[in-house]
Design goal:
The complex is a heterodimer.
Chain A (H helix, E strand, L loop, with lengths): L2 E3 L4 E5 L4 E3 L2 E3 L5 E7 L5 E7 L5 E3 L5 E5 L4 E6 L8 E8 L8 E2 L3 E6 L1
Parallel strand pairs in A: 2-12
Antiparallel strand pairs in A: 1-4, 3-9, 5-6, 5-10, 7-8, 8-9, 10-11, 10-12
Chain B lengths: L4 E3 L2 E4 L5 E6 L6 E7 L6 E7 L2 E4 L8 E4 L6 E5 L8 E8 L9 E2 L3 E5 L1
Parallel strand pairs in B: 2-11
Antiparallel strand pairs in B: 1-3, 3-8, 4-5, 4-9, 5-6, 7-8, 9-10, 9-11
The chains are: A mainly beta, B mainly beta.
């Protein structure tokens, strides 16, 4: 069965500092990979996704993620965090065929300090 | 344009009551998903519809949970004889077609509290 691990429950970053959120997955083949953000009272919003090709993918709001097959990882990065980035971030995988049932990690809560 | 909407946004039920949660997907979206998000957890898949056909209900936790999408648009998730462990946020998502590459658009969720 596929699974997603986000080892950090909470992360605090100073405004303007760089950010990296970790995600590891377990899956028989290379799945499709996603990062979503959830702000309080809001639905999940897709930041970026990886299907194939270039392992560095760019997303919205200045986020990027790098797929590393050898490490089964798909870490999310941002060079300079803004206070408005404070939210919960979820990594997710979906099978690379058929319909896209998402399997989510438990999430990482990002806190931004002034 | 309009996104995915869900109603009610909040629902409080006494243990043993039946509840019905509604999802209005984006118009024209073929695929519709329900997820359950317990406090402090990521969303977990419940069920999947392609138009009016329920193709996957493997995530429904018990036979008290029932979902339908009779005309291939609006969907209702019904929980019978609610239990405290049913307390969670129920998320609905829709996507344009049937492929894993299609983006799922999520609604704001319905927060269910069972007392």
């Amino acid at each position: 069965a596929q699974s997603v691990t986000q080892p950090d429950i909470h992360i605090t970053v100073s405004e303007g500092a760089s950010l990296e959120l970790r995600c590891n997955y377990s899956y028989g083949a290379t799945p499709y990979l996603f990062w979503y953000v959830q702000s309080p009272g809001q639905g999940l919003q897709l930041l970026l996704k990886y299907f194939s090709g270039d392992t560095l993918v760019q997303g919205i709001k200045g986020f990027e993620a790098e797929f590393k097959r050898s490490q089964s990882s798909f870490n999310l990065r941002k060079p300079s965090v803004h206070w408005s980035d404070a939210a919960e971030y979820f990594c997710a995988v979906a099978p690379n065929s058929g319909y896209s049932t998402l399997t989510f990690g438990k999430g990482t809560m990002l806190l931004v300090s002034p | 344009g309009a996104g995915v909407s869900q109603s009610p946004r909040y629902k409080v039920a006494k243990r043993g009551q039946d509840v019905a949660l509604r999802c209005d997907p984006i118009s024209g979206h073929v695929s519709l998903f329900w997820y359950q998000q317990a406090l402090g957890q990521g969303p977990e898949f419940l069920t999947y519809f392609q138009n009016e056909a329920q193709l996957d209900k493997s995530g429904l936790p018990s036979d008290r949970f029932f979902a339908e999408r009779p005309e291939g648009s609006v969907s209702t998730l019904k929980i019978q004889r609610t239990q405290q462990e049913d307390s969670a946020v129920y998320l609905c998502a829709s996507s344009l077609a049937r492929s894993s590459t299609d983006t799922q658009y999520f609604g704001p969720g319905t927060r269910l509290t069972v007392l």
